[in-house]
Amino acid sequence: MSTTTAVVTPDVTTAAGSPSPQGTTRRRRSTLRKKLELALLLGPATVLFVAFVFFPLVAASYYSLFDWNGFGPLTDFVGLDNYTKALGDPLFQGAIGHNLFIVIASLVVQLPLSIALALLLNGKIRGRTGLRLLVFTPYVLSEAVTAVIWLSLLQPHGVVDGLLEGVGLGGLVQLWLADQNVVMFTLFAVITWKYIGFGIILFLAGLQGVPEELREAASIDGASGWQTTRLIVLPLLGPTIRIWVFLSIIGSLQLFDLVWIMTLGGPAGSSTTMATYLIDRGFRRYEFGFGSAVAIILFVICFVFALFYQRFALRRDTQGALTGRVE
Amino acid sequence: MMSTTTITKARAGFTAMTPVRYLAALLIVGVTVAPLLFVILGGFRTNAQINSDPAGLPSPWVFTNYANILANDAFWRFLGNSALVSISSTVLAVGLGSMAAFALSRYRFRGREAFYSMFTIGLLFPLGVAILPVYLLLRQLHLLESWVGVALPQAAFALPVTIIILRPFMAAIPTEIEDAAVMDGATRLGFFWRILLPLSRPALVTVSVLAFITSWNGYLLPLLVFNDPANFTLPLGVATFQSQYSQDTASILAFTALSIVPALVFFIFAERHIVGGLTGSVKG
User: Fold this and answer.
1) Do B263 and A140 make contact, defined as CB atoms within 8 angstroms?
2) pLDDT digits over A230-244, tens only?
């Protein structure tokens, strides 16, 4: 972020000054004017942002040092006890594990799947526009609606069970959301349903940037389709893959809505995520100090990951959501 | 790609991969559409029909589920609340965000990059992390149970993306245009309002669409801010309806189907901008 290049736009207001005495007053007036304009332009956004994004982070790190129910003064200072308590709680350790499961499963399943599907759909195919629209639909639905849809589909003796039995796979039927050993896989499947379209669209856009000539040249040189894909297309998709990985991991670490509606983190904590754990302790048990400590842990995990990723992976890309360069 | 297509190439494209392609396309369509179709068609069935054959077609078609929900105040109220919250949060985020992006892209001043970094860090910041203090703040400001209490934080969290997309766009508009405007006697703010904003329209549409969808789909903040069902937004309303009438599957399906409609209509109109906005960062 700090490597942003300077704007080459000449500055109109300050360039007008001249060394004469009249010039200095005019210049002083114009710098004052510029300051006022900046305050007017930047002020409101900064106030809103500081009040609802920045201040809460500072406040949360302060609250996290107290045993506090959210009412009355903060008197019961407990130091880092909330942090050791949270990190020592098997339920929270499980929650971190569940988030990691989603992170890894997304990388292992969704990434190759969406690249493969994008490659397949990138070829000449009838109704490509319609397909693109369709594939993207689940991404636009809220997680709440997605959760409600799949709750209905996954009911015992519901549609999914019925379909499996219908094709002779009745043996595969599970208690999709009530079996501790199955629930995370079920949730992952629903997440994949909702978000795979986003990956496909992203990679289709990335494939537009791979010049057709390169592929033709490779095939003239005798490369097989698979070789062309592996040695030419995939490396050129690098920036897209890195952005997808970033968005996917940050999203997986923050998972809340879907889990909260479908399982409330159950059964018996077997699908608790860091965010559901945080809301449960904060808002259902009024442990605001403890909840704040959990929030800070979640923030630190996201932040450290993002910094490392920025440093080691995204740095290579000249454009990117986070590097946000201005030429 | 298409313009260079010749007949031979088109024929060469019809290789062993073609059936695989169509098979993959068919699979994707099936997996994507089937659950939505089940919801929509399920709304036209009775609970007895659904229980006896979960995956079947309506026979006979029943319209009472949909009619009941459309005649029910609750659905329309949720819809109205959602619209109010999302529109205000979008207007606020895009309004303030474009002003900030203007300052950050076309003014030179000390601390500019620090300001910009502050906003970008907001991207790494899930609402969940800030939610406890945000809740306390809203309680102190007496904004609980108020749509303002949802719209303000949502706008604040939409600022980073808005500014990150708008800044390079505004910076890329040629200086000559600004010089000409100044020459004609425009102030910088006049240039911003009358020339830069109209020129930034494509980027403004994209950020508006993104802010609107995020707000429209928001669940966590409304869940905590609203206790009174009269204030619920659509996602919160759907989830609550589901848990309240868990025995009445047909009504749940009808309710869910109807709640998808606004999102789908909006999506069909805004698809280009959503996809463009999300993939823009990659294409550069």
Assistant:
1) yes
2) 888 888 888 889 889
Domains of chain B, each with CATH number or no CATH: 7-65 (no CATH), 72-283 (1.10.3720.10)
Q: Identify the closest residue of chain B to A117 by CA–CA distance.
A: B24
| ipTM for the whole predicted complex goes beyond 0.90 | no
**Based on the structure, what is the number of domains in chain A?**
2
Nearest-angstrom CA–CA distance, B252 and A193: 21
Residue A70, in any domain of the structure: no
Structural domain boundaries, residue A95:
81-316
For residue B115, the one-letter residue type is: F
Per-position DSSP letters for A253-277, written without gaps between them = HT--HHHHHHTTT-STTTT--HHHH
Q: How far is A85 from chain B (nearest CA, A)?
A: 18
The reply to whether A90 falls in a domain is yes
Chain B: residue whose CA lies nearest to A52: B153
A265 in B contact zone (CB under 8 Å): no
Spans of chain A below 50 pLDDT: 1-19, 318-327
Whole-model pTM: value is 0.85
A239 touches chain B (CB under 8 A): yes
> CB–CB of B167/A326 below 8 Å?
yes
Written as six digits, the tokens of B197 are: 């904003």
Report the residue of chain B nearest A304, measured CA to CA: B124
